[in-house]
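REVIEWER CHECKLIST
Item 1: Sequence provided? yes
Item 2: Single chain? yes
Item 3: Sequence as submitted:
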Amino acid sequence: MTGIPKRLRIAVVGERASGKSYLLYDLIHAFGLLGYQPEELPLGYPHSSFGTYFYDTFNSVTGGMRGTEHYACRPDNHYGAWLSKGTLGWRLEVDFLNIPGEVFDMGKDKDRMGMFFNLRKLIERRGKGLFFLSTWRNQAGLEKRLIVTKDLDLTNGKSSEASNQNRLGNYLNWDNLRFELQEGRYKEVNRKPVSGRYLFKHLTELQTDSLLLTIEQCWKNITSSQEMSLEDYKAKQVLFYFYPLVYCQQATDLIICDNLMVDSNVGELEERLAYFMTEGTARPNAYLAFRGADGILRNCSSVTKTSLVGTTTADASARNLLYEGMVQEVLREIPDAGTASVLPQGWAYRIRQSLGDGVGQAFWHLLNATACKKTFSLCSVLGKRLNLYELTQQQGFRLPPHVYFTATPVDADGRIYDNDPADMTRFINDENGRIRSFTAEVNSGRVQHMCLGSYQLLTDILLQNGIHSEGLHQRGEHLRYIQSMI
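Item 4: Structure as written out by the authors:
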């Protein structure tokens, strides 16, 4: 393709069972609904493909979705694609990282964040001479890019294989790396000095285990101007979470996930992220995605639920009309803590708790933090430029911008799929005795994915990054407000 590629880096953050994996599944499908098609990835692409995401995330026997495990993060834990669309003259390069909320569990004194910022500053000050980029290549043309010290010898010495389980949950040692290089028949083809800034700029292309091992090996040189304990940094897991912390500072977009069906501390997570954004240099676009829209849609009026009847499932206006109707019904109930008809019991309180009651709390706080170094204003549906405080006072709108209600188990015909009692990780629909499995129906092409909420979220992400999608002129009043330009 011609033209300069457009790059999206999407950090998806949430506590356990917050719906991160389900949302990413939806977003990948939403790219297809918007007309984006994957290109063939180059041999040296550092991340896993969208197809690999489905393989890694779904149980091929049951069709159920695996939860996100505690894991040592490396470039292949990313999932990405090069996407093209119709006659566009450029490529859309997108990758995303599934980040557990525990990464930002700082403790009372916010130790981990402060320690991370301090370590980053010290590493970035290092010029060439301490860190070396070691490139290894095998006969198939595959490359590994390690960070080592000048004299480290990886061709000789002890080697040992790490189990898959140990590799998933822990970073490797030099003996494990020697084994992997030998097994893959890699040969070192180049070694050159690089600066500390290079490490951060190219982190997602580097072999993470070698980088962390070299930081530990060079600890005294890195921290010579300060008294910093390596053991303290290990105890606070600053090094273990080094990769996702750096990625969040490189992300173009940050999505917070919240599951309305379980208790969580998403408000606290948003406050911690706001601190991280305020103290650091990262200013990604921020979004909040509630999981549970299928439970809301089930209780919506017949007018809302039948808005797709007689329309083409690929029609953006039909999808937006359904979503607009659902959000309008939700907005009528959020302020009321009493008996609700659309929101199941307790959901209105949960939503208000995650949003915050005004500027400076929960998601409002995060919006402020990510916006504080931008020329910030939000456009109302009337075209008047408003700041965040004015938006909180505006009558008729009780959601901050960029907040979505999302659901995986809804197909484009409006069928809602329920958790299978025999396997709570998968969704089924019982229609007059005919049992449908959601993933089987969607992946076989027998039905199309609704991508309820996630379709609108992706449209918003693209819009905030200067990419206009079909259907933007077919949005209702509330959706225009939710997707306000920053």
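Item 5: Key structural point noted by reviewer: The radius of gyration is 24 Å.
Item 6: Recommendation: ____
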